[in-house]
Write a structure and sequence with these properties.
Layout: H1 3-34, E1 42-46, H2 52-56, E2 67-69, E3 72-74, E4 78-86, E5 97-104, E6 109-116, E7 127-131, E8 134-137, E9 147-156, H3 159-165, E10 174-179, H4 191-200
Antiparallel strand pairs: 1-4, 2-3, 4-9, 5-8, 5-10, 6-9, 7-8
Length: 202
């Protein structure tokens, strides 16, 4: 083997070695730039709360509303509805949850219960009471297109004082979660898209 052939063989070996090292390095850099898993996208649709006290207030003293929940008498109730949809292209696995999906309010509001609506297309989450102002959902699989329907039942513990100030009409409900590659909940871009989501499940 002459010197030219040996030099060519050495260059060929070096080129193969560099290529072998470069491909994994590029793949690692590309994954670092895009993240190890695709970005998640969860849409949150919140709707106007139903307030029976407000709706019945025009009857004045003709009506008195209260009900019992467990051993507690409730003299005011607000029902808030919200839908969560996996609007991305990749599933959200139970192992992707670093912080459970939660519903939160501030005192004097109190969350009585969070329940899912029973529909053929809805995913059922198990909700657990953490305290009077926070409920959390147990992690569950959410495939692309899966949707969670929730009803949040609230009461104002300072109802008589709040009635005069009208504060009982406006509970501030805050949704939180920490999920791998989820920046935060998004909302439909416009009212038309919101209505489209509603009519899909009628």
């Amino acid at each position: 083997m002459n010197i030219g052939d040996r030099l060519f063989q050495i260059l060929l070996t070096l080129s193969a070695a560099l290529l072998t090292a470069a491909v994994p390095a590029y793949v690692a850099y590309d994954l670092w730039g895009r993240g190890a898993v695709p970005e998640k996208r969860v849409e949150l649709n919140e709707f106007l709360a139903i307030n029976p006290i407000r709706d019945l207030s025009s009857l004045g003293d003709k009506v008195s509303l209260s009900f019992r929940m467990g051993d507690q008498t409730i003299d005011n109730l607000v029902i808030a509805r919200a839908w969560l949809t996996n609007a991305g292209t990749s599933p959200i696995l139970p192992s992707d949850f670093y912080q459970n999906i939660s519903v939160n309010v501030e005192q004097p509001w109190k969350i009585l219960a969070v329940e899912h609506e029973k529909t053929t297309s809805a995913i059922s989450f198990k909700w657990k009471k953490i305290n009077d102002t926070r409920f959390e959902a147990e992690p569950a699989l959410l495939n692309p297109g899966d949707r969670i329907y929730t009803n949040i039942y609230l009461t104002n513990t300072q109802f008589k004082e709040a009635t005069a100030k009208k504060e009982y009409l406006d509970p501030n409900i805050v949704w939180n979660a920490r999920i791998v590659n989820l920046r935060g909940f998004t909302t439909p871009p416009n009212d038309l898209d919101r209505m489209r989501v509603i009519t899909q499940d009628l």
